[in-house]
Amino acid sequence: MPEVAVVVPTLNERGNLTALVEKVDRALIHRDYELIIVDDDSEDDTASYARQLAQSNPRIRIVQRIGRRGLSSAVVEGFLATSAPYLAVMDGDLQHDESVLPQMLAILETGQADLVVGTRNTLGGSVGSFAPHRVALSSLGRSLSRIVCKTELSDPMSGFFVIRRTVFDEVAHNLSLTGFKILVDIIASSDKPIRAGEVPYTFGERQYGESKLDTMVALEYILLLVDKLTSGWVPTTYLTFAAVGASGVLLNALLLRGLSETGLTFAVRQTIAGAVVIGCNFLLNNSVTFRLRRLRNRQRLIGFCMFFGACAVGLMLNVRLTELLNNGGLNASAAAAAGILAGSAWNYLVASLFVWRIARRAPAHREVESLQSQETADMTASLRRLDQQLKQPIGSPKPETIAHSRD
Ligand code: GDD
Ligand code: MN
Questions:
Q1: Model-level pTM greater than 0.90?
Q2: Are the CB atoms for 224 and 179 separated by under 8 Å?
């Protein structure tokens, strides 16, 4: 029975995996542990590679999530996939120092703490060669975390910690699962302060691949705080969607004014402005609101057509409802507000339930495997053909002919 599970969320970390497995193995040599890779269907086929490694290392387990994204939710699904009484999480890019894991576990085992965080901000710890803007962002995040967290930590932004299973289970149902900051999510979801310990370490350099943390991660963090402050009552994705919609209303007004000199009729000007606004809203929603389900290439085109259709219906709904309420005696601005809200809610429903649900990744591994084993595949194919030919009764058509007639 494993006493500790090390959960590693991965997104395109294939190049780091072999070293990671070796390092964790060396660090936890005296422990019964399992290493759970939670991969979000990485393009570089991290999951297949992990499976390959698992064939010769029974400690490795894999959770591959298809059509899902998000660091926090990946970590939580890893925690839920194990029975180990101690749950550790670390990055898959060798930036977290696995050699302090035994020290972190030892503190949990004394019973004096329920959570031990690998921290870069106390004596003995360091942010390493972290870019200055990342250090500033991290310290701003730390200050903001105090609004929602009852537990005082020197590095609440850390993605490297060990927690007692029983304590995690208590908060599991209250988590927001928004974004990158699972530790803030956990401590903010607990009604009482969590007894926490800290172990310093130096944040290492990424070996292969690139960081997935971008400017949008800051937005996700704000959304996490809003979610915590409102106890989950405000649908945070809708907030972003509505903000994009509001920027569209502004753009619409500007465009109308810009086109006023052209001599075009209002209907034509509004049609042009409306089309541009829907296009901009689509692109903004694709890269901000639904960034984790971002549509690319052909899917983006299909998604745009769907979004365009949805917005046209939304606009109709908006206008009809406004008319109806206004005729029913409601004053003009209240009726307009109700119309906008209904139209926007409709657009959001279609967008989140249909438009940004069509992304599918091509199964890259098949390509990789077929490239790797091209010779074997060729040999198998010729053997199969030979076999079929031998089985054919005399006078029946050749297998090739059958294959063609099926096309
Ligand atoms: N499954 C999954 N899904 N994994 C993800 C996702 C995702 O959407 N996004 C990122 N990851 C994985 C990466 O592959 C990596 O193993 C780990 O999560 C951290 O991502 P990085 O992109 O390397 O983040 P970072 O180095 O900029 O920041 C990390 O370290 C900081 C310091 O501890 C994160 O853990 C931060 O949360 C943390 O503050
Ligand atoms: Mn990293």
A1: no
A2: yes
